[in-house]
Amino acid sequence: MNPQAETELLAQLTEVVANLHDGGMQDGQAMFMLGAGADRLVSIRAHNNWSHLKASLTAADIMELLQHIDAEGNAALRQEKGREAYALQALALSLATVDAEQDTTKAGAALLDQVIESALSNFRTHAKPALG
User: Fold this and answer.
1) The domain containing residue 81 runs over which residues?
2) 55, 111, 123, 131: which one has the fewest Cβ atoms less than 10 Å from its Cβ?
3) Residue at 11 is within a domain
4) What's the mean pLDDT in 10-38?
């Protein structure tokens, strides 16, 4: 990743992590969407958690997933499903940081990944069994 791209990524990552810290993690619907999205990606790739999924992805896998997430996010925005688009943005940012080189970007990604892992765990514990 070139330095300019990583700087732009860091700015977006900082915004999302700050938003989560300022109340986004208290938004049950947003966390449900984040957990559901992470569960779908982790399950499709037959992994147990978000960190294992990320560690298994090649650069081509990441690009494919980012294109898919981008299309889904744009569709969610057109349908005025803001929380779904927000969750997809968080997942995409996490995936985009896999090759980060700056310590600050890696630290922000680790914070975001903790939120994603928590949302995934809560989804699997509470929501997924109820959905059948």
Assistant:
1) 29-131
2) 131
3) no
4) 91
Report the predicted TM-score, pTM, of the whole model to 2 decimal places.
0.92
Residue matched to tokens 């990320």:
54
| Total count of domains within the chain | 1
What phi, psi does 74 have (nearest 5°)?
-65, -40
Instruction: Tell me which residue has tokens 């990441």.
Output: 62
Number of H helices, E strands in the chain: 7, 0
Rounded CA gap, 60 and 48, in Å?
A: 21
- Is residue 129's pLDDT more than 80? no
